[in-house]
């Protein structure tokens, strides 16, 4: 019989004795637990002669404690310093209780992808932008559902001309007209959405912008809150700059890294489109166990002549910080353009040479833009990631996207899920 069996047998016998004992008969004394701890006198040599290495333990412990406290204090100071002590005065407070006020907002109507190659057709249709008690809704919809254009016509044999029908807001007819052709890969934009801006109506130079919004959920949706220059003082994009307060992707972060659990801020700047140095001025913030489509969050910008930073929910939770100073140098210097030799012809043209400001081109008035894009061919959705159903450099990228609608369309919920809801917009000037 093994030890386990013996122990079990002894326990059974003891239980049996308890049951069979006559009433009134005292129970036998139980064995007391015997401690294995040392008792009495015993040697303690570590007290008689201390190890000299013990003092180093204390030195290391308290040394690292002091270093940790110092680093923590510096990080707190650096975060506090980056916030600044600017005083702001409210310039505009928009809660959409009076609808989409044409005195403040423009609808931008185009089909060309706005330089990013997005697949949406931006409209002034009330199905794509409307207001209710929650605020402004910017909602992507399917073109075949809105206009009666058949799936076959999306691919071939249909002409769309927004200039001819008088709805296009761009002077360039190539941004407003397309004929679907299955041979060339040109198709009618399969998704319609909306882009609203305040150009010529609500602009600012130095101040603060705060937008409270809930972001959309759905594959390949691209919500954005951003700003563009009122006048291209330094030339066409990106020479006159771009400020992205918030950009995100609607993809599920469970299978797409940096999906709708991530928001980012970016500055675009450079002498030409090939030399956009946004990679030097971009950063992001992500949250755990949830995403930005679940609830409303505040997306903000603080902009002065010495710094620009974007943030989410509060000024200490910054998504991007860029400082401007003589020590840091001009953006032309920070971009390394002065050291370039383009095709053996020397450095590229400096569009900001006439400005004495270290923050040029971010020293002019900008206006606000709110939109939900769909897809792109500029790399914002990287090829080969998250089951992306098109490649950017293909001549039929939009057709590839449309042909995969059976995969991405089921990820889009109802209008409030696949759309961006903007509860409020506040714009401040420096007092």
UniProtKB/TrEMBL annotation:
Belongs to the glycosyl hydrolase 16 family. Gene3D superfamilies: 2.60.120.200. The chain crosses the membrane at residues 59-80. It comes from Microdochium trichocladiopsis. Keywords: Membrane, Transmembrane, Transmembrane helix. GO terms for biological process: carbohydrate metabolic process. This is Gram-negative bacteria binding protein. GO terms for molecular function: hydrolase activity, hydrolyzing O-glycosyl compounds. Residues 94-431 form the GH16 domain.
């Amino acid at each position: 019989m093994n030890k386990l069996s013996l122990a079990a047998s002894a326990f059974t016998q003891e239980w049996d004795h308890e049951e069979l004992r006559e009433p009134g008969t005292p129970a036998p004394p139980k064995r007391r637990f015997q401690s294995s701890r040392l008792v009495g006198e015993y040697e303690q040599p570590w007290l008689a002669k201390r190890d000299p290495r013990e003092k180093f333990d204390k030195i290391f412990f308290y040394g690292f404690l002091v270093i940790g406290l110092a680093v923590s204090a510096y990080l707190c100071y650096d975060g506090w310093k980056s916030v600044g002590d600017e005083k702001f005065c409210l310039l505009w407070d928009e809660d959409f209780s009076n609808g989409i006020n044409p005195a403040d907002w423009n609808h931008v109507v185009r089909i060309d992808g706005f330089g990013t190659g997005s697949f949406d057709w931006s409209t002034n249709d009330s199905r794509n932008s409307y207001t209710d008690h929650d605020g402004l809704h910017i909602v992507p919809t399917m073109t075949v559902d809105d206009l009666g254009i058949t799936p076959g016509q999306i691919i071939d044999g249909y002409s769309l001309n927004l200039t001819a029908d008088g709805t296009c807001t761009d002077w360039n007819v190539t941004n407003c007209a397309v004929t679907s052709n299955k041979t060339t890969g040109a198709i009618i934009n399969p998704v319609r959405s909306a882009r609203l801006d305040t150009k010529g109506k609500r602009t600012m130079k130095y101040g603060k912008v705060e937008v409270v919004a809930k972001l959309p959920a759905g594959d390949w949706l691209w919500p954005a809150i951003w700003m563009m220059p009122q006048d291209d003082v330094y030339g066409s994009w990106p020479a006159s700059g771009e400020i992205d307060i918030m950009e995100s992707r609607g993809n599920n972060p469970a299978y797409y890294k940096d999906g709708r659990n991530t928001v980012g801020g970016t500055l675009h700047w450079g002498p030409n489109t090939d030399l956009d140095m946004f990679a030097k001025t971009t950063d992001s913030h992500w949250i755990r166990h949830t995403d930005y489509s679940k609830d409303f969050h505040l997306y903000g910008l603080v902009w002065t002549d010495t710094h620009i930073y974007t943030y989410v929910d509060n000024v200490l939770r910054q998504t991007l910080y860029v400082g401007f100073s003589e020590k840091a140098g001009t953006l032309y210097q920070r971009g390394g353009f002065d050291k370039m030799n383009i095709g053996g012809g020397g450095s590229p043209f400096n569009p900001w040479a006439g400005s004495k400001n270290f923050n040029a081109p971010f020293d002019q008035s900008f206006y606000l833009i709110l939109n939900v894009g769909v897809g792109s061919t500029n790399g914002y959705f990287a090829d080969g990631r998250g089951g992306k159903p098109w490649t950017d450099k293909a001549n039929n990228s939009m057709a590839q996207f449309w042909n995969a609608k059976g995969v991405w369309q089921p990820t889009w919920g109802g209008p409030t899920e696949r759309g961006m809801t903007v509860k409020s917009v506040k714009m401040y000037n420096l007092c």
